[in-house]
């Protein structure tokens, strides 16, 4: 019979000592993810959104802090990453989750470009800004080995 205690414990602390930024944590996936990161041992979780610090207060200030960050503003994204590194000395995870859903079922003939531009500014450009600035820190931490192993996993899964 397998020892489930070891397996369970390894899942509980699989983020032990990791420092994470989660954007878009005010609701939905991000709101559900931030407590899980803390539960799985992340030593610090930064919740970054434009709606306030409700979640960081729930998780607890010793494990989670809130930084205001509008992902459509590259300077705010850069500042959030830099603040995280200044406070904790590292950044291991960027969970770029901020996103919105269009509030209408637009057809191409009636496309509202200001609404379209806002959607892309948050969902696509915001993601790119998060990746750009997080990678500046992570590359210094030599994540190339980790990336190569994830590539191998993807190859094996695709081949299977």
Question: How does this structure look, described?
Answer:
By secondary structure, the chain is α/β, with parallel strands linked by helices. The protein is 54% helix and 12% strand. The protein is built from 6 helices and 4 strands, in the order αβαβαβαβαα. It has helices at 4-12, 28-39, 54-59, 74-88, 113-140, 144-159, and strands at residues 19-23, 44-49, 64-68, 93-95. A 4-stranded parallel sheet has the order 3-2-1-4, sandwiched between helices. The relative contact order is 0.13. Mean pLDDT is 82; it is low at 3-7. Belongs to the short-chain dehydrogenases/reductases (SDR) family. InterPro entries: NAD(P)-bd_dom_sf (IPR036291), Sc_DH/Rdtase_CS (IPR020904), SDR_fam (IPR002347).
Secondary-structure topology with pairs:
Layout (H helix, E strand, L loop, with lengths): L3 H9 L6 E5 L4 H12 L4 E6 L4 H6 L4 E5 L5 H15 L4 E3 L17 H28 L3 H16 L1
Helix pairs in contact: 4-5
């Amino acid at each position: 019979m397998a020892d489930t205690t070891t397996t369970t414990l390894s899942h509980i602390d699989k983020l032990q000592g990791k420092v994470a930024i989660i954007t878009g944590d005010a609701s939905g996936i991000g709101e559900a993810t931030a407590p899980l990161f803390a539960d799985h041992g992340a030593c610090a979780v930064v919740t970054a959104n434009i709606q306030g610090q409700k979640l960081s207060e729930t998780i607890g200030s010793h494990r989670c802090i809130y930084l205001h960050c509008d992902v459509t503003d590259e300077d705010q994204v850069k500042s959030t990453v830099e603040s995280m590194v200044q406070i904790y000395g590292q950044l291991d995870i960027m969970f770029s989750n901020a996103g919105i859903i269009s509030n209408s079922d637009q057809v191409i003939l009636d496309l509202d470009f200001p609404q379209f531009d806002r959607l892309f500014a948050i969902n696509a450009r915001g993601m790119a800004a998060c990746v750009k600035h997080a990678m500046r820190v992570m590359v210094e931490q030599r994540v190339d080995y980790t990336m190569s192993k994830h590539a191998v996993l993807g190859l094996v899964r695709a081949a299977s």
